[in-house]
Amino acid sequence: MKKTLIAVALFFSVQAYAQDKPAPEYLKGSVFPDSVRALSLTALDGSEVFFGEILAAHTGQKVVLDIWATWCKDCIVSLPELQQLMKDGKKNDIHFVLLSVDREEIKWREGIKKYKIKGEHFFINEGWDNALSNYIDLDWVPRYLIIDEDGKITVPKVVKVDDPTLKDNF
């Protein structure tokens, strides 16, 4: 019993630390390096696309990146708020790109359909351990980043969709 309580306490301590840990300082104002731009993704239509191509397609636009997974309870529970944020953002020409770190592409596709998640979706073929995750020090999902019209990261880490930091940067 004592070991179980210790394990539970440790789990929640790690959870709180990951959520509250700030993003690395180098992220704010940075652009994604070539190693991250070369990250291979799968689009909903099954085509391969590179992260750099997605960024290039949004040149001159403000973008919210949402890194999520279908197995992530926080991601699923926050979907109604995310969909509302997307509607609000659309009024201000804010674009949302959703990147999944699911383990299996089929689970990602099923999750989008099951939860009726609107948006521009991509599956990270390498899963959680990839160049983007390493660059941004991904330690929690959902993870939101805001990229400005010049491709610079202006908000490097938000983990709750209702965090005022997101909407305040619209």
From TrEMBL:
Cellular compartment(s): Cell envelope
Keywords: Cytochrome c-type biogenesis, Disulfide bond, Redox-active center, Signal
Keyword Lipid biosynthesis annotated: no
Keyword DNA damage annotated: no
SUPFAM superfamilies on file: Thioredoxin-like
Record CDD domains: TlpA_like_family
Residues in coiled coil: none
Domain Thioredoxin: 30-167
Pfam families according to UniProt: Redoxin (PF08534)
Signal sequence extent: 1-18
Domain of life from the UniProt record: Bacteria
Database matches in InterPro entries: Redoxin, Thioredoxin-like_sf, Thioredoxin_domain, Thioredoxin_ResA/DsbE_sf
PANTHER family xrefs: THIOL:DISULFIDE INTERCHANGE PROTEIN DSBE (PTHR42852)
Protein name per UniProt: TlpA family protein disulfide reductase
Organism: Reichenbachiella agarivorans
